[in-house]
Amino acid sequence: MVNAPPAVLFTPELALHALIVSILTLLAPFALELFAMKRLRALVFALVAALDPALASTVGAVALHQSLDFRQMAGIAILTICAGVAVFAESSTSQKKVSVQ
Questions:
Q1: Which of 1, 4, 66, 99 is least surrounded by Cβ atoms within 10 Å, i.e. has the fewest?
Q2: Please, which pLDDT band fits residue 4 given cuts at 50, 70 and 90?
Q3: Shortest CA distance to 54 belongs to which of 84, 30, 75?
Q4: Closest to 75 in 3D by CA, of 90, 56, 101
Q5: What number of CA atoms fall less than 13 Å from residue 17's CA on the CB side?
Q6: pLDDT in tens, 44-74
């Protein structure tokens, strides 16, 4: 038989706190992304959004001592490289357009 969790974990006050934390963890990043989207160029915002998994995995590795397998690290590396190439290609394209005019 499985041991039941203590009844202390199911208090209404704790449930309210958990609800508040869950709402804030969803709304705060979303609101910040919308705020940044209005103020950044599309390419810069796309680069920042593409680097989110790399930042999250770094925080997970350092703060939470989590590890990624090879496939996950390769996926993050590919995403980061593609974002960098896109920014480099866009910046060189925009420089050519300026010099032509």
A1: 1
A2: low
A3: 75
A4: 56
A5: 6
A6: 888 888 888 888 899 998 999 999 999 999 9
Parse the chain into domains and list their residue ranges: 9-39, 41-101
DSSP line for the chain: -PPPPPGGGG-HHHHHHHHHHHHHHHHHHHHHHHHHHHHS-HHHHHHHHHTHHHHHHHHHHHHS-----HHHHHHHHHHHHHHHHHHHHHHHHHHHHHHH-
Nearest-angstrom CA–CA distance, 58 and 18: 26
The Cα 39–Cα 84 span in angstroms is 20
The CB-based long-range contact list for 91-94 (8 Å cut-off, 24+ gap) reads none
